[in-house]
Amino acid sequence: MKKSSRGRLHWQPIIGATIVLFMLAVAIVGPFLMPYGEAEIVGFAFDLPSPEHPLGTDVLGRDVMTRLVYGARNSIGLALAVVVLSFLFGASLGLLSATLGRGVDFVLSRFFDLILAIPQKVFALLLLAILGTSLPVLIIVVAFLDSPRVFRISRAIGLEINALDFVETARLRGDSGLGIMLRETLPNSLPTLVSEFGLRFCFIFLFISALSFLGLGLQPPSADWGNMVRENASLIGFGEMMPLYPAFAIALLAVGVNLVTEWLAERWSNPAHE
Amino acid sequence: MSDIMSDMTQTSTPLVVFEDVRIEAGQASDPKVLAQGISFSLERGKVLGLIGESGAGKSTIGLAALGYLRGGCRVAGGRILLSGQDIVPDLGRKGVLDLRSTRIAYVAQSAAASFNPAYRLIDQCVEMALDRRLMSRAEAEERAHAYFKRFRIADPVEFGRRFPHQVSGGQLQRAMLAMAMLCQPEVIVFDEPTTALDVTTQIEVLATIRDALAEEGLAGIYISHDLALISQIADDIVVLRHGKIVEQGPTGQIVNAPEADYTRNLLDQTPLARQPDRTTRDAPRVDIRDAQGSYGQLKVLKGVDLRIGQAQSVALVGESGSGKSTLARALMGLFPLTSGRIELDGQQIGSLSSRKASVLQKLQLIHQYPDTALNPRQSIRKILTIPLRRFTRLRGAALEARLRELLRQVELPETLIDRYPPALSGGQKQRVCIARALAAEPEILVCDEVTASLDKLTADEITRLLGRLQTEQGLSTLLITHDFSLVRALADEVIVMRRGEVVEAGPMAEVTERPQHPYTRRLIASIPTFEPGWLDAQRVAEA
Q: Does residue A11 sit within a domain?
């Protein structure tokens, strides 16, 4: 991590934070400023950009600009909820597994292996078909399916940290497993976990849009960016820009989030500079 | 190529010249100076010793001679010449790459970490020669085998077929020397090549290096923190401190007539002041009887007895693999014995999880590496507060006062209290580790090679501190070490271990002055001295 020169540290968080804050502002305030509704049909399908519809209209004649803004709220909110939940679940169990070891580690590791053994999308399909596709269910199911990866990486970092002498010192003074995990292991695994958070956040976007493609993601007429790409994909063949707007929004957010998390990880991995 | 050839024939030009070299890291506007005003020259066939404590810039300078700088570092001034050629601007990136290993080679400190564990030794030794198309594979292998043989490796062909983990540290270091010499370089940079080895293995590797350089007429830059060691191999010595040259000159002059105070301190052989002997007739505090233990099939403890009396200091010495650390870990409850008894004040103590808080409090361990023994994300205050809260009833103002008292006891300034470990030097970190152990108000202190990762001056300071604490607080201590100056200064009793067995035990003065067992004699004789010809004498003695 020391490879990056100090020069990069200065613009990296600024650009990243600008992107993320802008996206968040759009997601939170945006929907109140839009003249049209999320699912309101305001014109013909695939209208070209005009003063009333700066980015044109989509396949059903809804305002693309409006749907992008609502999409920001839905997509970011959904992905954020999923990643937070998946980290709470996966990282806490991963670190616990590494710290307690033995039986606990064995049982937890095999449990997560089991989830990993079933193809993720098929498993999602199954669970969503059984449990329905309401928003809370969607969030929990996707977070659950994403957590094995978080579990495995947290467990690996945890094992590495727990081999260090300061953890042995904690054991020698009789600290409990939970105490060691919270005081010794967790703070030292944060740099890696934070950068992993940024990465997983972007994967979740793609996963949810894949689910949407199967009709199991966010249900229409709610706008989400992944969905919007798919709905309007047919336009690509005509050389139109429209499907690229939501795709571009996803890419931009991914870059922004990773710039911020990478910078945070780098900063935190060097507590002397705090 | 032609000008290189002509250079090689010019014997009058020194081989390596540093001219007022300055190396910086960080931003150009606010640079961190790693080395400055570095000037020296190295003739063909000579060995130059670079000595200094960690952070003195010796590795940075050694690597710069290879035209290599770690990420973020740069040569900000001066020139580095190889046969009169300024290597950085003249040769360019490609040229510098060609230079390495064909004209300058490198032998790293930890051979175990430098070899790729997935390839056989022979493949790694010939890789550079094949990559540079200097010779055919058969030719390269033959040369490598010849070097192995010269370095006293019994079956060179079989040795080459092995993987790095299948040979010993000393053999691996010799394989790396063979790798460095294979392409017939003019200079080899040795970066602490024997630091990770036991003292007895160190002699063997050191002698091999010296003979190999002499036979081929190669020049060497030898980096070390051990002045005695360097005096055995180097023709000239450069003493470095804080990135600057303190003193430089021929070895005899540096050793016999040093000018700088710092060099004099490094040369100081006066034994550290010793506390009066503590012999006790009371029942032992710690009593280990017939300790046996194994890692899988390998028996590491074969029936070891150990007793530590009240306020007594026992040193456990031996090479790596002797079982001394394992015995200490068994005492701490970290290693389960297969048979035998460990008693504390007459009570048997078992595995860590079965020990009561009062037992945990009485026994405190100080680790070898202060870098990994402190959580880098906890401030010094936090590190010391945790054991205080766990083992004492101090709270609030009383706890705060105790924190400051602890820092005073280990001679650290109070201003460090809110700093984090990465901001501290190695010696300061080890003091924090000692303070943390003292915070628990222990009765028995187990010190696992506490001075091994420190340079001589810092190690001496830590030794003095431990001696003072022993007397002031009446602590019983178990010292696991191979450092005989630590033993002489602190220990009352010495136990010498070899391959899981005690070969000699007795009062300190007796064991160190009149060792009975040949192994003890060899251990003591293996410590480098400033005596000219010491290395040859050791070799003869061994043969």
A: yes
Residue contact A174–B360, C-beta within 8 A: yes
> pLDDT tens for residues A132-164?
888 899 999 999 999 999 999 999 999 999 999
Nearest CB among A2, A7, A188 relative to B377 is that of A188
B369, closest residue in chain A (CA to CA): A165
With a CB cutoff of 8 Å and minimum separation 6, the contacts of A18 are A256
pTM: 0.82
Q: Provide the number of structural domains found in chain A.
A: 1
- Does some domain include residue A138? yes
Predicted confidence (pLDDT) per residue in A48-86, tens digit: 888 888 888 888 888 888 999 998 998 888 899 999 999
Query: Which distant-in-sequence residues (6+ apart) come within 8 Å of A96 by Cβ?
Result: A104, A108, A177, A178, A181
ipTM computed for the complex: 0.80
Instruction: Tell whether A206 is covered by a domain.
Output: yes
Cα–Cα distances (Å) from B365 to A24, B250, B518, in that order, read: 50, 43, 31
Q: Is residue A274 part of a domain?
A: no
Among candidates B72, B357, B373 on the partner chain, residue whose Cβ is nearest the Cβ of A166: B373
Cα B199 to Cα B525: distance, rounded to the nearest angstrom: 9
Q: With an 8 Å Cβ cutoff, are B377 and A187 in contact?
A: yes
For residue A145, what are the domain limits?
2-269
CATH code assigned at A249:
1.10.3720.10
Yes or no: say if B338 and B382 are a contact pair by the CB < 8 Å rule.
no
* A176 interface with B at CB cutoff 8 Å: no
